[in-house]
Design a protein that fits this description.
With 411 residues, this protein is α+β, with helices and mostly antiparallel strands. Helix content is 30%, strand content 25%. It contains 15 helices and 19 strands. The longest helix has 11 residues.
């Protein structure tokens, strides 16, 4: 059943479907047009289709809005979305704005608003859901919330550059880091910085791993050294090293001194290598086992929550020690092979010894060819004595092969 009133924050991420029921994209934002005396009108939706292309879907081509989905008439203009001056993005620009309540009760923040379908088929802003400024001295107290009509509030446009990011934080709370990074690049720079500063350390670390270099550096500029070091501690060593390679040598050394010594040592070792070599791209945290490790023990290591999925796809077998720089590299056992053998079987009998390790100076072009030619997820990286130093994973290679602006709308 089609809805006649919806809240815009709930539309983010909704699937867009054609008349045959095939999914053609997802909603990124709602575009609103201001009018002189009437409430703003929804002109359409910014949707993401295949290939992360952002396009505009006019509201006239939306046949129904239901929980979790938009139905379109199937006609979608594939030209990239370009925002016009009189239009405003609901999620990125309107939520978080301050308004003055005309009943004299003070200032409030727009946390969401509903759009309602009129008899003419237009979708117009119906009600604002706002949070009033807190009047308590308690640091964590929140103001009360209420619904108000558009005509019962006045927007404080003069403060638009300083808008509160709290509502935007709640809007993006459930986004995966990659989707959050894409959404961040759509925001004006001041809101992007404010949103990043409002994230907790772990969420910010995940975000920085996904952002392009320029945006990483902008966010890092706004962090004090203590918080920057905490965030870098939570990032993967290879991602942290890539980021720090673009900081000044003085700040890099300051941050390394503030970081956990083990994490800092991993990053120092990665910074010694060129950025487009195996040594510069590898992660020093693969799953490493002894030859007499059983299938059951290896599976237990893979199941750990903190292990990234790309690293859980295989275990590497070496002589002692079993942390990088590890002992002599003996071979690898892939996850699928572990599933096919009994729990008591030792890894020594399951080794794939044909997968050749690469040296720290192997260039990215060769790494790319090896991963593609042999359908691999990761390549072991060894020193001149064949001791395992880390692994280069397929996602590391993609990060370096894709252009810096691949998340943006520019071709």
């Amino acid at each position: 059943m089609s809805a006649t009133r919806v809240f815009v924050a709930r539309l983010t991420g909704c699937g867009v479907f054609d008349p045959q029921g095939d999914r053609v994209g997802k909603v990124i934002d709602v575009l609103m047009a201001y009018r002189a005396t009437q409430p703003p009108r929804a002109t359409g939706f910014i949707i993401e289709i295949s290939g992360r292309r952002r396009v505009f879907l006019p509201v006239a081509r939306v046949t129904a809005i239901a929980p979790g989905q938009l139905m379109s008439n199937g006609f979608i203009d594939l030209r990239r979305f370009s925002q016009r001056g009189q239009e405003v993005r609901a999620i990125a620009q309107m939520l978080g704005r301050k308004v003055t309540l005309l009943d004299g009760s003070g200032i409030a923040t727009i946390e969401d608003f509903s759009i309602e379908k009129t008899k003419r088929g237009d979708w117009v802003l119906a009600e604002l859901f706002v949070r009033k400024a807190k009047n308590s001295a308690l640091p964590f107290a929140k103001g009360s919330t209420l619904f108000v009509n558009w005509n019962d509030a006045s927007e404080n446009h003069e403060n638009s550059a300083d808008q509160d990011a709290r509502q935007l934080l709640s809007t993006v709370a459930d986004l995966r880091p990659a989707d959050l990074a894409t959404a961040m690049l759509e925001l004006p720079e001041d809101r992007m910085i404010a949103l990043a500063e409002g994230l907790d350390d772990e969420r910010l670390a995940d975000l920085l791993e996904e952002l392009p270099e320029e945006e990483q550096l902008e966010i890092m500029k706004g962090l004090d050294d203590d918080r920057a070091a905490e965030v870098l501690d939570l990032m993967g060593p290879d991602d942290a090293a890539d980021l720090m390679a673009n900081l000044s040598a003085e700040r890099t050394e300051t941050l390394l001194d503030l970081m956990d010594p083990e994490e800092a040592e991993d990053i120092r070792s990665l910074l010694k290598y060129g950025p487009y070599t195996a040594g510069g791209m590898m992660t020093p945290e693969p799953i490493i086992c002894a030859a007499d490790t059983t299938v059951a023990e290896a599976m237990a290591l893979i199941r750990r929550k903190e292990v990234e999925s790309v690293l859980a796809a295989q275990v590497f077998v070496t002589l002692p020690p079993y942390e990088t720089p590890a002992g002599k590299y003996l071979g690898v056992v892939h996850f699928q092979k572990l599933l096919r053998y009994p729990p008591h079987q030792s890894l020594s009998s399951l080794l794939d010894t044909e997968q050749q390790a690469i040296g720290v100076n192997t260039p990215i072009a060769q790494i790319h060819r090896d991963l593609a030619a042999y359908d691999l997820i990761a390549l072991p990286v060894v020193d001149e004595r064949n001791h395992l130093l880390g692994v280069v994973t397929v996602d590391d290679v993609l990060d370096h092969l894709l252009p810096q602006d691949w998340r943006s709308e520019e071709e």
